[in-house]
Amino acid sequence: KRGNGIASAILRSHHRVLDRDGIPAYLEAVSPETARLYGTLGYEPMGERYGLEDGGPFLYPMWREPQSA
Length: 69
Prior knowledge:
Keywords: Transferase. One of its GO terms (molecular function) is transferase activity. The chain is built from two helices and four strands; from the N terminus they run H-E-H-E-E-E. It is of the alpha+beta class. The protein has one domain: Aminopeptidase (3-Layer(aba) Sandwich). Strands 1, 2, 3 and 4 form a four-stranded antiparallel sheet that branches. The radius of gyration is 13 Å and the shape is globular.
């Protein structure tokens, strides 16, 4: 079921490790809605969206710098 916050919880857990080690994160959102969600987790848009070949979805590259505690 959507909306339970499971994906956000998993990302926050992963971010704690990345932040501790000073490692940035990269991901590709599959919609403007998911890009907004990732924005609440510290991700910033990285360049323009791009489409996959053969009519695949647009992807929205995003970057997150390590956060200090």
